[in-house]
């Protein structure tokens, strides 16, 4: 059920009205450019990563692109003919953090006009007309906008945008430096206020919280948070100063002005390393309270930013990678569980997986050349999206189930949040994994360079129709690894960069080598020989899963089908619900040892507590075979039964069997597993 008091509280009144159905969302005013396409030569990679990429593009450029709205044009810089990007399902506004992260991750590259409008949608003016990043309830996170704005300039080369962005950046930094709340603590040389990501008190240990979270579910009402200093927030201030200096330099501002920002950045980097680095853990600490007490906890975004922004030196970076703790489904927000939470009831901002954090961590891993670790994090997010009909807000880090996490509301109540669907920054996290990680796109003010990371087992891959300024690029990666063996543009060998003045259609071919040996999925088949290198399988099937038993939660699902654990008796880590509406479907890749055509038997374990036999359509490789029935099992959804469909035609080595609710079907069942027998 959608709640009417959103956890992320920027634009609080508008969010409340929209969540409760008072405000309508307009359609985009103009269509986005035709998006890129991602094509893997290996079928399993295409099914896993190619499908997730297409879903992420749909999320960003269609589902979450809304029309121009004058309420957000407080800067006076929006183009009424261009839309903006909202935060996602349940969050109908752009919001500072979301707008910034989404532009940085993907929007500036994929649709520069849309990104620019979205960035200006979170900027307003003060009483004398000076631009500033909006002064809302999350004022501590304003400065992430500066990094997004500099990145937008690097992608587009738009100097008019840069001039206005510099005005907004300088005024915003001045405001934050002199603020009495979430301002600068001269004693420590650090900025105070909540961590970049954790706007809920569930993201903080006690202290500054207490065992019952009795003051507020938000973070800033807690005095210890408001006066505390947090790793990620200070790293973003460091990046903001670096990028303000970059802006000033590009605009030809006075040398003293540039040096001023550079000096503030250097001082802040020194303070971060002095106050947060913990040699005993080999990582940066999460928090420093005003009384000087430190919290030796792990913050996912904080570790990622330390690597991305170069705050950590090379030895520290190696230590962070070696000592960072991940959950089975990815990098958690904060870690470990606070005493008031547990694996069974993880805190909303504690030991739980937000895809946004996964994306930043994957960016950081790619930047360190950690190819297999990057591949593992990217595969996790692709699976989470594929298993759950798209990109959700939060997942249980142990099971991967869609889960909004827990939060206290006082002495006796612990509230279980929902996890919202169609989250834009979850989708753009995956897009960035592909663009920045896999293809290694790096933007400078002179051009676009490449440092790809193609893991063993993924196969060759091509990114088509990628627009960069005046050029339309087709980029093909061959081999595996991070070392570029050859780089060709339109068949001619060149350095691994293209100039910003390039125009027209061009094909880039990059041959890679040097992929590290490994077995990411632990199935005993080396990645280089594993056709399903990120999903455990068997030697007999070249590392692909045995179709003799496929857990339903590992299927690729669309139309609202997602993982769940709210009934008992299922096998594996979860079961599937959501096969309850037209268009809902679950697809299972049947990796066979033969390519010969055959007619096989498919057995499905399911739950049906309806009063009649329910029907679904069984398809193979997208072609309907017949309508199939699922008789009632029990009056309880905790009871499971099986049914077998004989004489199912299969061809090729990797046929895809799909159960869907098509027109004429009654659906409304849960799925537990599927088995194939010859």
From TrEMBL:
Gene3D superfamilies: 1.50.10.10, Galactose-binding domain-like (2.60.120.260), Maltose phosphorylase, domain 3 (2.60.420.10). GO terms for biological process: carbohydrate metabolic process. PANTHER family: ALPHA-L-RHAMNOSIDASE SIX-HAIRPIN GLYCOSIDASE DOMAIN-CONTAINING PROTEIN (PTHR34987:SF6), C, PUTATIVE (AFU_ORTHOLOGUE AFUA_3G02880)-RELATED (PTHR34987). One of its GO terms (molecular function) is carbohydrate binding. It comes from the Bacteria. The keyword Signal applies. This is Glycogen debranching enzyme. Residues 548-677 form the CBM6 domain. Keywords: Signal. It comes from Amycolatopsis mediterranei (strain S699). The keyword Signal applies. Residues 1-26 form the signal peptide.
């Amino acid at each position: 059920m959608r709640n009417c008091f959103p956890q992320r509280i920027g634009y609080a009144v508008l969010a409340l009205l929209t969540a409760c159905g008072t405000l309508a969302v307009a359609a985009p005013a103009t269509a986005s450019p035709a998006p890129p396409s991602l094509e893997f030569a290996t079928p399993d990679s295409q099914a896993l990563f190619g499908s997730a990429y297409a879903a992420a593009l749909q999320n960003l450029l269609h589902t979450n692109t809304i029309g121009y709205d004058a309420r957000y044009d407080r800067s006076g810089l929006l183009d009424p003919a261009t839309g903006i990007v909202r935060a996602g399902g349940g969050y109908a506004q752009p919001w500072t953090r979301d707008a910034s992260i989404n532009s940085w991750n993907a929007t500036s590259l994929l649709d520069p006009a849309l990104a620019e409008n979205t960035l200006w949608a979170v900027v307003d003016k003060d009483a004398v007309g000076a631009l500033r990043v909006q002064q809302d309830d999350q004022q501590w996170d304003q400065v992430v906008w500066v990094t997004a704005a500099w990145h937008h300039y690097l992608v587009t080369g738009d100097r008019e945008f840069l001039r206005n962005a510099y005005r907004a950046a300088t005024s915003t930094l001045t405001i934050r430096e002199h603020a009495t709340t979430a301002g600068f603590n001269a004693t420590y040389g650090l900025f105070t206020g909540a961590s970049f990501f954790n706007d809920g008190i569930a993201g903080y240990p006690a202290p500054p919280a207490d065992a019952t979270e009795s003051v507020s579910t938000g973070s800033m009402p807690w005095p210890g948070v408001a006066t505390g200093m947090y790793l990620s927030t200070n790293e973003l201030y460091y990046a903001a100063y670096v990028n303000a200096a970059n802006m000033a330099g590009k605009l030809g501002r006075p040398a003293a002005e540039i040096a001023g920002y550079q000096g503030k950045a250097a001082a802040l980097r020194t303070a971060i390393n002095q106050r947060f680095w913990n040699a005993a853990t080999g990582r940066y600490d999460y928090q420093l309270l005003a009384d000087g007490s430190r919290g030796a906890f792990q913050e996912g975004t904080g570790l990622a930013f330390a690597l991305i922004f170069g705050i950590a030196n090379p030895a520290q970076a190696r230590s962070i990678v070696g000592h960072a703790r991940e959950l089975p489904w990815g990098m958690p927000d904060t870690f470990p569980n606070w005493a008031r939470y547990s694996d069974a009831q993880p805190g909303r901002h504690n030991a739980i997986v937000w895809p946004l954090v996964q994306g930043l961590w994957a960016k950081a891993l790619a930047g360190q050349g950690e190819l297999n670790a990057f591949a593992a994090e990217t595969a996790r997010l692709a699976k989470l999206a594929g298993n759950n009909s798209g990109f959700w807000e939060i997942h249980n880090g142990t099971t991967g189930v869609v889960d909004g996490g827990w939060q206290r509301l006082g002495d006796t109540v612990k509230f279980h949040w929902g996890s919202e669907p169609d989250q834009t920054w979850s989708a753009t996290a995956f897009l960035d994994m592909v663009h920045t990680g896999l293809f290694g796109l790096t933007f400078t003010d002179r051009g676009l360079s490449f440092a790809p990371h193609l893991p063993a087992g993924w196969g060759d891959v091509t990114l088509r129709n990628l627009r960069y300024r005046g050029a339309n690029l087709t980029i093909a990666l061959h081999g595996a690894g991070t070392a570029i063996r050859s780089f060709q543009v339109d068949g001619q060998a060149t350095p691994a960069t293209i100039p910003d003045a390039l125009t027209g259609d061009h094909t880039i071919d990059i041959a890679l080598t040097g992929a590290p040996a490994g077995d990411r999925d632990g199935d005993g088949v080396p990645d280089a020989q594993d056709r399903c290198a990120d999903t455990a399988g068997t030697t007999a099937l070249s590392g692909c899963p045995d179709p003799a038993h496929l857990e339903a939660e590992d299927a690729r699902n669309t139309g609202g089908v997602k993982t769940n654990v709210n009934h008992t008796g299922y096998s594996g880590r979860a079961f599937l619900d959501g096969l309850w509406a037209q268009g809902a479907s679950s697809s299972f890749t049947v990796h066979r040892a033969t390519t010969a055509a055959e007619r096989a038997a498919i057995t499905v374990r399911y739950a049906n507590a309806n009063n009649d036999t329910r029907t679904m359509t069984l398809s193979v490789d997208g072609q309907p075979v017949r309508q199939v029935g699922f008789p009632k099992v029990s009056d309880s959804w905790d009871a499971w039964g099986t049914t077998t469909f004989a004489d199912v035609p299969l061809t090729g080595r990797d046929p895809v069997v799909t159960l869907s609710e098509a027109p004429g079907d009654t659906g409304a069942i849960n799925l537990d597993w599927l088995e194939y027998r010859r």
